Amino acid sequence: MIEASHLGFARSVALGAALTLCAATGALGQTKIIAGMVAPGPPQWPMYVAEELGYHKESNIAIDALSTGATTAQQVAVGAVNIAHSGFPDFVRAADQGAAVKIIINTLAEPPYTIYAKPNIKTIADLKGKTISIGGVKDVTLIYMKGFLAAGGLKTSDVDFLYAKAAGDRFAALAAGGVDAAILNPPTSFRAASLGLSAVGEISDHVKDFPFTVWAVNTVWAEKNRAAVTAFVKSYQRSVAWLYDPANEEQAVSILMKHARIDRNDGKSSYDYLITKLHAFSRTGEISAQTYEKMKQGLIELGDIKEPTPPLSKFYDASFAAASPK
Fold first, then answer.
1. Model confidence over 167-180: pLDDT tens digits?
2. Rounded to two decimals, what is the model's pTM?
3. How far apart, in whole angstroms, are the C-alpha atoms of residue 131 and residue 298?
């Protein structure tokens, strides 16, 4: 089982060099890959599948997964982790500022978010003047909220935001009454529903073909370990294909329960929502020119890039996903 431990940013900088050295080789000659992620959960499902089905071992790689929270992009930039999973603006921002970071897989290609609110809030218009918890002042969830609010005739200036990177923290704030609404993804969205909170609407109804999370790599490390990165991407995309086979649903749910530490109801609901309904995981792992056009507009709105915008190749190495079987 991939164990997700916690790693603070200050400690990560101090340990970066040592981690890079120990990542070079693992047991029996396997290449050890240190993977950072905001928090364990359904977004990492294909990685869990690859581990459980032995795809990593077959590919001669071993994954050491760390929960890196809001500093995930920073940690891959300094080399404290080799690869990292987070919202795409985090890595674009780092790369645009000159960090040795590039996206390698488009993972959740559809936003799996629902806006939940206190029971008296029923419509988007009801959110006017309310406090909403989102991921951050420059987080991808802000891009989603702009489109969502606009569908109800509102602007971001019509609401107040409270920031928490992890969905679990946003859910906790909403459940405690500390905010009026929150943008939540599975399994926290299911927990909100179970408490009788109001489902105001889904982001996917208003924002289409717009990536949520991606995997990125420290490019200095990748240059020395290209075979390992390629193996990781191939194993990941193989796992995505496996998840979409209905015959694998029960085993897929069990794998998610084990690694994300959720119950069967949340696991089954995650499958129904992410796999069956949204088809959220990208089958190719690629970022198309059309998708980048949408990404650019969101990034410009966040102030992360300016016109004339850099080419997609500055932020994304397409060669790894292109090498994976389709």
1. 999 999 999 999 99
2. 0.86
3. 22
